[in-house]
C-alpha cells in the first residue's frame, strides 16, 4: 500500500508515528511525506533567519510529538521525550551531529532548564527532525518512509488510486492521501490588492497577512513609519523584528521588569486593533506536563443533563453561565489560598462554602474576608472599548499591561485572574466535545464562532509573559505607540493611513497585517487546493446554518467527522482521501494546537481516526491494478 502524507507538520508526523506502531506486518507499506519546508513544516522551519528568536506559545514541557498510544512491545523500543526532556537529554548531541543548524539552538537547549520555559519555534523544528529520524529508524521491515521537500501542486482521483504532482516534476500514484497543509496563504482581497498597488506605485512596503517569521524587514530603518494592524500573537513577532531585530537591547532591572535601550535604527511604530489591547499573557508555569484542572461546575455530566432538558442541545447562555461559574470559583479559591485569614482554622470551612455559588455574595460578611467577589468576565475581554478618558488612554493602557504582568507573575495555577484564564485551556477538550458532537443549535454555533471565540482567544491565547514585559518596555521607551480601539487601515491612493475611535490619525510608508491568513480553502493560494476545488473533490461544509439559512462553515472543507474522509462536490465520500488539521477549523473546535503529553490531545485523537481509515481495507483493493489506475 502506498500512502502520501501532504504536509510534514505536527499532524502528519503524528499520523506517521501512529502508522509505524499499528500497521499490519504482513503487508508492505510505502509512505511518502511531502512539504516545501523541512520536516516540521513551515511555521517551525529551523532554517528561517529569525526562527530561533520567535517563541512557541506552549511551555516546553507541554509539547510533544509522541502519541499517548504507546506500544512498548515493539521490536525497536524508543524513548518518547517531550520537548523539554529532549532539550535536556538528546538535543545537544543531536545538534553537534548536525552542524547545519544555527549555533543559537545549542545555546538555547542549555537554557531550557525548567517547566517555565518556552522553546523557540525553530528548536521545535529541530525536535521534529529528530523525532522523524527516531521513528523512521524504528519502522518495521515491511515499511519504507521517504521525505520529499517539494510542494504538491495537483492531484487527480483515478478509479482506484490518486495521482499527485510535485512542483519539481514529481509524479506518483497512491492508494491513500492525507492532506494536512497547516495555515496556507490566501489570494488578496480587494482591499489588500488596493494596498499592494499603492505600495508598489509609491515605493512603499506592504506585508499582507502571512507567517510573520517569513517577512523580510531588513531594509526598514529609522526613516520608516510602520503601521501594524493587529495586536495578537503575530504582532509580538513583528514587534520583536522591528526593535531587537534592529539592534535594540532589553535590559533586566533589579525588580525583574525590563527596560529598552534603542539602537537608533528602529522605525517609528504605530500598532492597533479593533479592541485596542493585546490578549492576556500566559502566567508563570506551575503545572506539570499533563496536569489539567478538574472542574466542579463546568462538567460534561452537568452539560449533558442540561442538553437532555433542552431537546439534546445546550443553550449558549447555559454553557457560558456554567463556564463563568467555574472561572469565578477558581478566582475566589485562589484569593482565599493567598489571603491572611482572620482565623486560619476556618480555611477548610471557607473552601467548602465556595463550593456553593449561592454563598459567594455573602462570603466576606460571613468570614470577615475582603475577597473581590464582583467580577464580570465579559467585561475583561475588551475593557478598552469602554475607556472614556481619551486623553489618558496611554496611561490606562500601561496600567492595564502592568496589572496583567503582575497577575501572570503569580502563576498560571495560583493567580486569581491568570489562574482562572488558564482554565480555559485545561477545559478546552470539554468544549471540543460539545462543539464537535452537535450539542448546540444554529444560534449557539454562531455565538461559539463569534462571542465565545473572542472570549477564549482574548483571555487564554495570549503570548508568553516575557513578550508582555518587552511590550511594556517598548511603550515606556517611546519606541511604540498603541492606538485606541477601532483601529483600521486604508489608503488615500498615496499613503497608508490608519485611524482609531479616539479620533487619532496616522500615516505610514509601511503597512504590516500582523496575523495569519483567514482559514478559507475557497480563496487559498495553494495550487493543490485550487486544483481540488476545480475538480469537485472539495466542498464547503454545509452542516451548520443560521436561522436565515446562511451556512456558518462555508470556509471549511467538508469531511466525515468520524473518519475525516473528504466529502466531494456531489456530497459523496472520496474514499482514501483525508484532511486533517487547520483546514477543518470551524468544523472542529480550536484546531490550532500542538500536542500535549498524556491528555489525549486533539492531534492524537485525529491521528487515530485517520490511521484507522488508512488501514481499513477497501473493496476492490485486492484486485490487480492496471496502468489505467
Automatic annotation (TrEMBL):
Pfam families on file: NAD_binding_9
Species, as recorded: Fructobacillus papyriferae
Protein name (Swiss-Prot/TrEMBL): FAD/NAD(P)-binding protein
Annotated FAD-dependent urate hydroxylase HpyO/Asp monooxygenase CreE-like FAD/NAD(P)-binding domain residues: 4-183
Name the InterPro entries on file: FAD/NAD-bd_sf (IPR036188), HpyO/CreE_NAD-binding (IPR038732), L-asp_N-monooxygenase_NS-form (IPR052189)
